[in-house]
C-alpha cells in the first residue's frame, strides 16, 4: 500500500492535518516572539530570555503533559492546553513592552504547548493495520518538515500584511483549531492508555529508552549546530537564498528520506537500522564540517536530511516497542524534549565557538555530536530490542 492509500484510511488524513495545523504555533513562535519584541524596541537581552523561556518551558512541560494524557486521556489535556498556550501568545502580543508579562506569556505558551506530536504517534497503531504502522511513522516524520518550511513563511506573510503581533494572534488561533480537529476525532476521544505501575520514572525505567534518548541528544545537538553554522557559511559564501535556502534543502532531503524509507522493504533489525542511519548522519555531518564549496554544501544539506527522517522513523518505532505499558505518550513526549534540548545545546555551543574559537571547532560540532549518537547506540545496542522483558528494569 502506498502513501496515498494510507492517507485514505479512516481518520489518517484528519489526524495528520490537525496535528500539523496545531503544531504550526510552535514553529511560528520561535520567529514571531523575537520579531514582536524587537518591533516594540525591546532589548536583545529580553528577546533572548523570552526565547529561552519558551523553549525550556516546552521541554519541561512536554513529558508532564504526556504523563497526564496517559492518565486522563487526550481531549482533557489537549483542549485546555491549547487555550492556555494561545493565551500565552496573546499576552506577549498585547504587552511586548512589559518584561514580566512577556516572560509569563513565554512560559505559559511553552509549558502548555499541546502534546499533539506524541498523541498522534500513540494513535498510529490503533488506526492503521499493523503492517502499515512503520510507514505511518515515516509519513509522520516527513510531514513535520512542512512545519519548519511553512511556519516561517506564515510569520513573514503576517508581518508583511499586518504586524508581528498578528502572527502571534494567528498562532493562537491555529493552535486551537488544530487541537479541535484532533481532540474531537473518535480515535483521540476513545484512546485509553493501559494500566501502568505506580513509579515516578515512568518510561525512563526502560533501559532501552534511556539508551535511545541519550543517543538522540547527539542527533538533536547536530541539528541545532547546523542551524547556526549555515548562517555563518552563508555570510562567507555566495549561496542562493542564503542560510534559509540551505535549510530548505535540508528539509526537502528529510521529506525525501521519509518517503524513501517507507518504500523500502527492510530485512535488518531496528537496532541495526538505527546504527546504520546514525553512521550515515555522522558521515554526512563530518563532511559538512569540511565547509566545501556551495554546490557541494547544497548536496550535503540534502544528504543530511535524507538520513535524518529515517532515523526519526526508527526512533518512533523503538519508542513504541520499548515504552513500558501505560507510558507511551509520555515516552514520545520525552523524545521531543530530548531533541529540543539537544538542539538548543548544539546551537549554543556553536554560537560560542564561532565567537571565541577557530572556525574548525564550530564546524566539527555536528560530526562530533552524531559520533556520540553512534557510540551510545553501539554500546547500548543489546537494550534496543522490542521486548519488555529485555528492555525494562524491575520497578522499585
UniProtKB/TrEMBL annotation:
Record's keyword terms, sorted: Membrane, Transmembrane, Transmembrane helix
Source species: Planosporangium thailandense
Domain Major facilitator superfamily (MFS) profile: 11-384
Annotated membrane topology: Multi-pass membrane protein
Transmembrane segments: 12-37, 43-65, 77-95, 145-162, 168-188, 209-231, 243-264, 271-290, 296-319, 331-354, 360-379
Name of the featured protein: MFS transporter
Pfam families: MFS_1 (PF07690)
Record has Membrane as a keyword: yes
Main localization, broad class: membrane
Compartments (UniProt record): Cell membrane
InterPro entries: MFS, MFS_dom, MFS_trans_sf
Amino acid at each position: 500500500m502506498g502513501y496515498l492509500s494510507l492517507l485514505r484510511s479512516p481518520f489518517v488524513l484528519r489526524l495528520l492535518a490537525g496535528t500539523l495545523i496545531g503544531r504550526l504555533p510552535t514553529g511560528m513562535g520561535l520567529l514571531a516572539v523575537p520579531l514582536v519584541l524587537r518591533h516594540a524596541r525591546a532589548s536583545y537581552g529580553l528577546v533572548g530570555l523570552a526565547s529561552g523561556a519558551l523553549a525550556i518551558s516546552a521541554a519541561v512541560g512536554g513529558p508532564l503533559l504526556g504523563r497526564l494524557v496517559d492518565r486522563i486521556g487526550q481531549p482533557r489535556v489537549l483542549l485546555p492546553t491549547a487555550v492556555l498556550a494561545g493565551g500565552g501568545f496573546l499576552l506577549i502580543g498585547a504587552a511586548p513592552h512589559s518584561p514580566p508579562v512577556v516572560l509569563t506569556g513565554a512560559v505559559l505558551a511553552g509549558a502548555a504547548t499541546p502534546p499533539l506530536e506524541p498523541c498522534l504517534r500513540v494513535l498510529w497503531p490503533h488506526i492503521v493495520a499493523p503492517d502499515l504502522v512503520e510507514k505511518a511513522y515515516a509519513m509522520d516524520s516527513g510531514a513535520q518538515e512542512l512545519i519548519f518550511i511553512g511556519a516561517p513563511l506564515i510569520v513573514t506573510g503576517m508581518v508583511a500584511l499586518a504586524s508581528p503581533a498578528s502572527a502571534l494572534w494567528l498562532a493562537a488561533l491555529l493552535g486551537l483549531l488544530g487541537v479541535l480537529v484532533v481532540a474531537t476525532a473518535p480515535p483521540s476521544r476513545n484512546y485509553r492508555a493501559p494500566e501502568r505501575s505506580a513509579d515516578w520514572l515512568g518510561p525512563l525505567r526502560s533501559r532501552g529508552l534511556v539508551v535511545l534518548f541519550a543517543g538522540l541528544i547527539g542527533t538533536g545537538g547536530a541539528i541545532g549546530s547546523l542551524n547556526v553554522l549555515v548562517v555563518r557559511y552563508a555570510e562567507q559564501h555566495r549561496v542562493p537564498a542564503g542560510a534559509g535556502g540551505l535549510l530548505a534543502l535540508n528539509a526537502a532531503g528529510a521529506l525525501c528520506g521519509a518517503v524513501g524509507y517507507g518504500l523500502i522493504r527492510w530485512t535488518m533489525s531496528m537496532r541495526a537500522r538505527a546504527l546504520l542511519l546514525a553512521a550515515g548522519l555522522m558521515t554526512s555531518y563530518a563532511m559538512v564540517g569540511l565547509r566545501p564549496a556551495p554546490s557541494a554544501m547544497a548536496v550535503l544539506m540534502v544528504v543530511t536530511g535524507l538520513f535524518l527522517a529515517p532515523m526519526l522513523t526508527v526512533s518512533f518505532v523503538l519508542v513504541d516497542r520499548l515504552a513500558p505499558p501505560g507510558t507511551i505518550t509520555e515516552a514520545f513526549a520525552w523524545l521531543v524534549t530530548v531533541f529540543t534540548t539537544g538542539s538548543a545545546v548544539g546551537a549554543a555551543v556553536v554560537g560560542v565557538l564561532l565567537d571565541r574559537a577557530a572556525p574548525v571547532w564550530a564546524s566539527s560540532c555536528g560530526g562530533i555530536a552524531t559520533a556520540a549518537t553512534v557510540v551510545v547506540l553501539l554500546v547500548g545496542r543489546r537494550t534496543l530490542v522490542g521486548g519488555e522483558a529485555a528492555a525494562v528494569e524491575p520497578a522499585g
